[in-house]
Amino acid sequence: MHAPQAVAEAVRSREMVRCAGEDGVLWQVVPAAAASSRITLIASGGPYTGQEHLLKALADSLELGWREAEAASDLTRELAHAWDRLSFFYELTQVAGDLSSPPDLFRATARLLHQVVDAEDVFLASEREAGWTAQTASGLRLNLPKEIVQPLREAARPLSLAELPSIEDPEWLGFGLRDLLVAPIYMESDFYGVVGLLNPPEGRFDSNDLQLLAAVADQVGALAELALSRQSRESRLRFEHELAIAAEIQESLLPVELPDLAGVEIAAFLRLASRVGGDFYDIARTRDDDIMLLLTDVAGKGVPAALLTSLVHATFQGESAHHTDPADLLEVMNQLLFADLDKAASFVTGIVGRLSTNPLRFEYASAGHVEAALWLAGENRLEFLPATGFPLGIEKNARFETQRRKLHPGDVLLLYSDGVTESEAPDGKVLGKQGLADIMHAVHPAHASDQLRTYVDALDVHRQEAPLRDDVALLLVRALEVDSEPQMVVPFVLAAEMAHASRLVDPTRMLVKELELPQDAGRQLADGFALALTEVVTNQMEHAYAGGPGRIQGRLVLDRNSLTAHLYDYGIAFDAGETSPKNAIDPSDPPERGYGMRLARALTDELIYERLDGGRNHWCLRKYLSGEHRHED
Amino acid sequence: MKIEIDRVDHGKIVLRMQGRIDADSSPELRDTLQTLIDDTVQLLVVDFAEVDFIDSSGLSALVAGHKSMRRYEGVLCLSRPHPQAVTALRLTLLDQILPVYPTLEAALKHPLPTR
C-alpha cells in the first residue's frame, strides 16, 4: 500500500495502517480523532521496529487532550450563549414596557433577537390587509407564503424547513434559503404572529435554536397582549376625553340662564343617561319679547343623538327669530332638518311653545312629542296637551297645528321627555302619566324650581336602584298668583321605606326658621310639627304600604296663619280604629305600641284624613300660628 | 343613629345615643336593649344628650327596655333629653313611667332596687 491510500484508509477505518514509502521506508499511520471529528494522523517511518504501541499511546493521549480542550471551549461558548439569551429576554421585557402597540414590539424583538441568535436574519410577522408581512432585523420586507403560515397554524408548534412543504414561489427570498425555523405567536390564544430565523451561519438550525425560538414566541405573545391592553386603555382614555369635551359642548348649548318674564317662574332640568344624549331644551326671545320654548327628544342615545341635538339647537335659534308661530316654526325646522334626519335614519319629537304676557298665554305645537301637562289651578285638575303633528324628519312637508291656552294664576305647565313617564322601577313598572299627574297634584303650588327638584326626586324614588336608562328633560312654567296671601311651599317626595321616615324633620325646621321666632318657640313649633309629620309618614309606610314599595308625596306650606302639610299616597285606606288606642295609659303596664297617632293628634290643631278617588290617601296636618308665632310683616 | 355602650360600674350601663331615633333606627335600639338586659344589670341609663329627634317607635323601644328591666327588678332611666324628647315623653305620659334626669351623674345615682 502506498502512502496516500494508507492515509485515506487510516482516516476511514480509524485504525493503524502500515505502508511502504517510495524509498521503501515502512510507515505506520495512526489516527487520533477529536470530538469534532477532526482526525490527525501520527506517522513514524523507518524500519518496522514494533513501535506501534508507543505510536498508539501517543495518539490516544492526543485524542484525549483535544477532546478536553474542545469540551472546555464548548462550555464557554454555551455559557456565553446562555448569557446572551438571558439578557435578550431581559432587554425585551424592558423595551416592551415603553411600547404601546404589537407592531412596535415585533420590530424591537426582531432587532434584539438578531443580536443573540446565530442566524443571517430574523423576522416577526403578523397578518395585515396585504397578507402576512414582516420587516426583518436587517430591514428586508418579507411576505410569508401560505406554505409557511398554514402548516404553522395547523401544527401550533415551532417548525423547521424540513417539516414545511416546499415553497412554490421561486422568487421567495432572493438571496437563497438554506434553512428556516418558524414558531407561531399566540395572543389571547389566537394565532397572531410568526417569529422566524433565516439561514444559520453554517449547517442547519439545531434543537437549541428551536428551543430559543419557542421561548421567544411565548414571551412575545405575552408582551403583545400587554401592549394591546395598554393600547386599548389609552384609546379608551382618549375616547373618554373626547366624550367629556362633547359633553361640555352639549351643555354649552343649553340656555345659560332662564329668561325673566313678568308673572311666571321658569325652571328647567336635563339629566342624560350617558355623557351626551338626545334630550334637549332651548329658549329664545322674540322681537316682541315673547319667549319661545323648545323641548325635544332626538331618537337614540349617546353621541349620534347628541350630534343631532346641536343641529336642532342651531335651527331653533336661527329660525325662532322669524317664525314665532309654533306650528310655522316646527314646519320650517322640519324642512331644514329633514335631509339630515333622513340620512341619519333618525327623527326628533319636540314641543315648541310661545309664552306671551298681557294676557298670559301659551301657544304650542307638538311634533309627535309626549303630552305636555298643564295644571289648571282654577279647576284643580290636570290637562294633557297632545301632539299636533308628526315627529320631525318623518315627512318633508309635514303640517302642524298651533293650540292656544290661557294661563291663569297658579297654573303650571310642564314640558317633559318620555324619559320621565317611562322611568322604570326595578319591577319594570313605569312612572307613567298617572305618576306624573299625582306629583303635579301634590306639588303644584311650590316655586317652579322646587317643584322641578321634586320631579327629579320622584324619578329617583321611583327608579330605586335601577340604572338610569333614558335621558330626562323637564321644563316647568308656573303662572304666579297675584295679590294672594304670601306663602312658602316646600314640595317633597319620599320613598315608602323606613330610611325616609324622618326625612321631613329638616325641611320642617328650615321652614319654621323663616318665621324668625325666638329660639325656644321656633324649636318647639318645628319639633312638634316634625314629630307629628314623622308619625303620619311612618304610619303610611307601615300600614298603607305595609313595607312594600311606594311613594309619599306632598308639600309643607307656611302662610300667615298656619303651618300645614299635605301628604298623598296610594296605599290601602287608613283604619282609624286599628292603630290608635284612645285609652289612658296604665303606668304599671304601658303599651309598647300605638303612641304614634296619639302624638300626631296631640301635636297638631287639625289632623285630617280622607280617602280620595283613584285609591289615594290624603293627610292634612295643620298647626295654627298663635300670636307669638305670627310673623309681623 | 349610633349607640355607644359604657359599663360604668358593677351592674350599671350607660347607652350613649347619637343622632335620630326613628322607625328606621329604633329596631337597633330595641335589639341592643334586649341583648344587654339580664339579671346582672341593675341600672340602665339611656343618655339622650346627642339625640335631637325621637319618634314613637323610639319611645316603644324604650318601653320594651323598661319592661325587660322591670322583669329583672332593675331600672331603665333617661338622662339629658332635648326638649323634643321631653315633649314626646310628656305627651305619651311616659315621663310618668321612665325616670328622667337632667344630668348623667344624677341618673347614675338613681336608687337601686333591693333584689
Summarize the structure.
Chain A has helices at 3-13, 52-98, 102-116, 146-155, 207-253, 302-319, 326-343, 418-421, 432-443, 448-463, 505-513, 519-544, 576-579, 596-603, and strands at residues 17-20, 26-33, 39-46, 121-128, 131-136, 141-143, 159-160, 180-187, 190-198, 264-271, 279-285, 291-298, 348-356, 361-367, 372-376, 381-385, 403-406, 412-416, 472-479, 488-495, 551-558, 562-569, 606-612, 616-624. Chain A has 633 residues and is of the alpha+beta class.
Walk me through what this model shows.
The complex is a heterodimer of chains A (633) and B (115). Chain A has 633 residues and is an alpha+beta fold. In chain A, 39% of the residues lie in helices and 26% in strands. Chain A contains 14 helices and 24 strands. Chain B is an alpha/beta fold. Chain B is built from 4 helices and 5 strands, in the order E-E-H-E-H-E-H-E-H. In chain B, strands 1-2-3-4-5 form a 5-stranded mixed β-sheet. In chain B, helix 1 runs parallel beside helix 2 (56-71). The mean pLDDT of chain B is 94. The A-B interface holds A 498-499, 501-502, 505, 520, 523-524, 527-528, 530-531, 534-535, 538, 541-542, 584-585, 587, 590-593, 595-596, 598-599, 602-603 and B 20, 22-24, 53, 55-57, 59-60, 63-64, 66-67, 83-84, 87-88, 91-94, 96-97.
Percent of residues in β-strands of chain A: 25-35%
| Beta-strand content of chain B | 25-35%
Widest sheet of chain A: strand order? 6-5-4-9-8-7
What summary fits the major beta sheet of chain A?
6 strands, antiparallel
Major sheet: arrangement of strands of chain B:
1-2-3-4-5
Largest sheet features of chain B: 5 strands, mixed
- State the end-to-end CA separation of chain A: 144 Å
Overall pLDDT score of chain B? 94
- The total beta strand count of chain B reads 5
The total count of strands of chain A amounts to 24
Q: Report the C-alpha radius of gyration of chain B, rounded.
A: 13 Å
